[in-house]
Design goal:
Length: 96
Amino acid sequence: MLLFYDYLFYLLIFSGLWSFISKRKHLLSTLLSLEFIVLSLFFYVFFIFVFYFELYFLMYFLTFGVCEGALGLGILVSMIRSHGNDYFTSFNMLQC
């Protein structure tokens, strides 16, 4: 049963990485693919910890995942306010 979850985890991670690599024009699409990777990691860690450990670590993992998402949305809003869009080509670190 755990082998099925391993294959499912690999499929989810590689599809998230593929979308992260292929959709790198917009910041929002890269942030969504990163959240998909974090969600697939959460599912895998959940299935591992249900069988072997307690589930306290999952609360820490979810807390860091939410903080990462909030920071990403903050960067997205700041970039849209300053540049007008979320294209990486219009964003230059030297202009700040």
